[in-house]
Amino acid sequence: MRVPPAHRLLASLAAAEVSCDRWLSSALPAMAGWFRRLLHKPKSSSVESSLNVSRSASSSPSSSSAESSSSSPSMSLARSVRLSPVSLSDINASGSARWAKSYDVCICHSEVDLELVEELVSYLEAQPESLRCFLQLRDAAPGSAVVTELCDAVQNSHCWVMLITPGFLRDPWCKYQMHQALAEAPMANGRTIPVLKDVDRKDYPKELRNLYYIYMALKENSFRQIRDTVMRYLQELCQSSVSWKE
Predict the structure, then answer these.
(1) Which among 71, 91, 88 is positioned nearest to 79, based on CA atoms?
(2) How many Cα neighbours within 13 Å face the side chain of 155?
(3) Is 170 exposed, middle or buried (0-12, 13-18, 19+ CB in 10 A)?
(4) Is the Cα dihedral 26, 27, 30, 31 positive or negative?
(5) Whether this model's pTM surpasses 0.70
């Protein structure tokens, strides 16, 4: 095959360069105009409303003792809506969203912590709201499979308290129930309530790192924080359900 002389190749390249420059000089202004129109295109109302919801999102109810009012990294739609106060009578009303599940709170714990958990359950059930607690050794059906009971307890409860102790970290069933709860409600909307006791922060489960926790230093204060967190979720649940109906 004959190869064209070098001067002809150079001439062809020069012509192609000139042609390319002409195309860019005519196309770039049009492209710039298109980008300007795109950037100045008015936002739709749906986009604006979603942005407003994101900006108005509030803090997570679960908090460590050192950061009681910190904002959660995750947020839910229910927390992004400004809610009016809900009375106890509204929460206990026959048509309340509270009764859509069998339990208000499920306590996920190790068997070695049973004595402390029984104190917590007694405290919660004795409150004026009469919170309904699921305690596995008390409420599980005799003869039923452990996996079935753990899954049912998670699905039939509004909130889940994770009592994270050395025994919890060693217990594979505790980790299984924790994963079930996170799968049921992956966003940090106040349903999963980690409670840390006798565990270093470095041992805090990685799966819960996006959730603030309650550090149990004084038992009475921690019990009250747990109760307040559950009630705050129930209040927002009932209020949001009323708002949707309206």
Answers:
(1) 71
(2) 6
(3) exposed
(4) negative
(5) no
195 three-class SS: strand
- The pLDDT confidence band at residue 42, using thresholds 50, 70 and 90, is very low
Cβ pair 179, 125 in contact under 8 A? no
At 212, the amino acid letter reads: Y
Question: What dihedral do alpha carbons 224, 226, 227, 233 form, nearest 10°?
Answer: 140
- The beta strands (E) that lie in the chain are given as 103-108, 133-134, 157-164, 192-196, 214-215
The span from the CA of 34 to the CA of 92, in Å, is 58
pLDDT tens column, 106-141: 999 999 999 999 999 999 999 999 999 999 989 998
Separation between Cα atoms, residue 39 and residue 193, nearest integer Å: 43
Q: What is the pLDDT of residue 123?
A: 97
Higher local confidence (pLDDT), 37 or 106: 106
Query: Can you name the residues that pair with 163 across neighbouring β-strands?
Result: 195
Q: Do you know the residue count of the chain?
A: 246
Please write the tens of the pLDDT for every residue from 74-85: 333 333 334 446
